[in-house]
Amino acid sequence: MTVRRVMGTETEYAVSQPGVAYYQPVKLSFDVVGAAADDATRHIRWDYRQEDPVNDARGTRLDRAAARPDMLTDAPQLNITNVIAPNGGRIYVDHAHPEYSAPETTDPFQALLYDHAGDRLMLAAARAASAADPEPEASGHPVVLHRNNVDGKGASWGTHENYMMRRDVPFADVAALMTAHFVSRQIWAGSGRVGIGEASETPGFQLSQRADTIHAKIGLQTTFDRPIINTRDESHSTGAFRRLHVIVGDANRMDVPQALKLGVTSILLWTLEHAREAGYDLDALLGSLQLADPVEAMHTVSHDLTLTAALPLETGGTTTAWLMQVALRRAVYEVAAATLGTDTKGEPAWEDRETRNIMAMWGQALADTAAIRHADDDTRLTMKAEAGRVEWLLKWQLLEKLRRKIARATRATDTTGTGAASWADARLAAVDLSWAALDPAKSVFARLAAAGSVERLVDDDALDRAAHNPPETTRAWLRAALVRTFPADVVAASWSHLTVRKPAAGVGDDATGVRPGDLVSLDMSDPLAFRKENVETALAEADDAASLIERLALRR
């Protein structure tokens, strides 16, 4: 029983050009992605052939003619919009945003590392795109990136999680358990937001940036009527597995909530995969957590800073987000005890360090949120330890102190005695935006982190290494190593395939510059088969990319 599984993240960044009233976000996105490329690898295309955005996990397929154009992400782009990052990830333009997709990893702490390493790659690309003395890929004007999810005016962009899981688990069970989890985990996973409502129609502060943009329980779409459970069935793996694609999460800056999101979701998926064979009554758990209106509950939890809001259940009665998280953790413990046995303290015999750490952190998150729940606002302002682990609380502390300072100044100059600082004050929204700035010189979060106010799980040196080196435990290692070793030979890449040209290949007439017979492809559908230990020797002995691909293909 483990949190270890193939997983990864995708982060869309807000892009802007300061100092002008109007700018073109799509062009700025192309500027950033173009600046992330280099001359040796710029020619490599993204291979869209394995993508299948209209395949639905509920067993159906959406007719392509009925799909909105923005759903058809497998349509090749004519412009250079994709870059294979040096760590094996992908940097590309997604609609009106530059996006970083982290390479495949195998545990939540590794996934955290490569997720936040992407911030460094994207900041470097934005700085290169902003070069005052334009290089070929520089825009010549400042380009600024923020790691957040909303503009406060109705627009939203995503921070996605991806988990490989067994396909034989009924998707109805997945949807039921994950709905309960995604609604309730906001109490410790939210990154905090100024403004209530999709377009900040009501002044206030809420737990989650993403919650108000969610309007459906389940669906295939990601950019409209966003669902709690996304059903896109595109595994990028073998037929035995599916990829759970999660679109409801926040763009966390802090390490602890990001690792917890990944680790707790992973252990709950393990529970789904093994509960019935362990003799656990999964149906009873799912029935007890079925919300009467999950979408309304998603909004209610995010808007409720008391953490005590009653959430109506389908079977009658109510629960709270905190109690739902307690029930989920108890279920994991019961399945673990039945599967692994327990030690002398009654603790399940967790199989690895990552799982022990995530379970301990989950318990701490529930203790933290319980303490927050029972504290008044004045006490919450003093909760340094909890704020170092709960992102929305740390952001709220900063903003509430500023709000009170503004209120005191307003009362001092208001002869009527009615002056007060509202959450609608533009200065609060500006600080909220500063929290998300990637540039440390402009980020209030970066200053707090440098001052030791944030509990860190990865250090700067590890982030620097992860930005430029792939994880060794997945196929991302081969993807990055092949591009680095034989860049001129690589024609196209995707998550599951690599295509290279044979030595001395002739020049063809199509857009790739080579004839189909000059190409060799490798199917890497098994994300663990091409990790470093399996392919490093073959790479070192290869004279060219094609001979390496042919040798590895013979092993399958």
UniProtKB/TrEMBL annotation:
GO molecular function list: ATP binding; hydrolase activity, acting on carbon-nitrogen (but not peptide) bonds, in linear amides; ligase activity; peptidase activity
Catalytic machinery residues: 94 (proton acceptor)
GO terms (BP aspect): modification-dependent protein catabolic process; proteasomal protein catabolic process; protein pupylation
Superkingdom classification of source? Bacteria
- Name the UniProt key words of this record, in alphabetical order: Ligase
Family of this protein: Belongs to the Pup ligase/Pup deamidase family. Pup deamidase subfamily.
**NCBIfam families recorded:** depupylase_Dop
Protein name, per record: Ligase
The protein's organism comes out as: Bifidobacterium parmae
